[in-house]
Amino acid sequence: MKRALVLGAGGFIGSHIVRRLKKEGFWVRGVDLKYPCYEDTPADDFIVGDLRDLSICREAINMKFDEVYQLAADMGGAGYIFVGVNDYDVMQNSAVINLNVLETCRLRNVKRIFFSSSACMYPENVQINTDDCNLPEHLAYPAAPDSEYGWEKLFSERLYLAAARNKKMQVRVARYHNIFGERGSWNNGKEKAPAALCRKVAMADVNGVIDVWGDGMQTRSFLHVDECVEATLRLMRSDFTGPVNIGSDEMISINGLVKMIDSIAKKNIKINNIPGPLGVKGRNSDNTLYEQKIGWRVSEPLINGIERTYKWINEQVKLSKEDTSN
């Protein structure tokens, strides 16, 4: 039986990867500060611990693993990343985790490790337009991310690539573009745009009004977590190191996303655009390199994933109202 280690297994993408690996017959160990919030973990072994603590890393990586997925990080949506007050924690926490994980893997002779980077590491000056904002991988340099989160991701990319060059480790690096879906943060201040907007629509009355940060014309592409997991595993098992984008190239404005969610909810929602943290003006995943190297592309339209996500968040909203009334 093959063995896999998922770091950040209590988080959104990590918990989905654990479930997929179990379906494939792996023995899986998960590690995180907490268990998944919305389901029991199917992991065979789960360590609740802080990977900033080197002793926890040594406990987690105490055997040979066929695959290691490093998704543990301090992160969140625009309301967490772009407000400035979390910058030190975001950089310190994630950098220490990556340094600990890589060195412990090296000492245990664990070779194959996936690192989840982010589209936030791309330069701000190539993301100032709403309609001309495709991001092929070579645009990463000259470096100028728009957040400290992006700078930490860029540093950690280089750390993993150095481990591949100097320590003969088989690293795989992907730049995730706005991953969303069921069983992710939706009401704790770390939720990203699709979850936040699904929550706002779900909580609104028919013909109601919801607040949207900025003018709503900022554009993004969003990838459902199921397709993210598929793309991640295909990259992990390929002979391509990366860095490579993992995302959708179906771009939409934030106001357009609200209208898409509203078409599912059938509420006739009106948008009230207000000041708020925004990030870059436009960002779209360019998947040319992934398709060339891996031979696979995202196939599901955005609305399919939004339908499933809205249904799940709407159920959470109803459950929270029931808890409040009881």
Give a short overview:
With 326 residues, the protein is an alpha/beta fold. The chain has ten helices and 15 strands. The model has no long low-confidence stretch (mean pLDDT 94).
Bin the helical content. 25-40%
**Strand/helix succession:** EHEEHEHHEEHEEHEEEHEEHEEHH
Number of helices: 10
The Cα radius of gyration reads 19 Å
Low-confidence stretches: none
Explain what this protein looks like in three dimensions.
The protein has 326 residues and is α/β, with parallel strands linked by helices. It folds into two domains: 3-180 and 222-246, Rossmann fold (3-Layer(aba) Sandwich), CATH 3.40.50.720; 193-220 and 250-284 and 300-319, UDP-galactose 4-epimerase, domain 1, CATH 3.90.25.10. Helices cover 40% and strands 18% of the residues. The protein has helices spanning 12-23, 54-60, 78-81, 87-107, 148-167, 193-203, 225-236, 254-265, 288-294, 302-325, and strands spanning 3-7, 27-32, 45-48, 67-70, 112-118, 134-135, 170-176, 179-180, 209-213, 219-221, 223-224, 244-246, 251-253, 270-274, 284-285. It is globular and about 60 Å long.
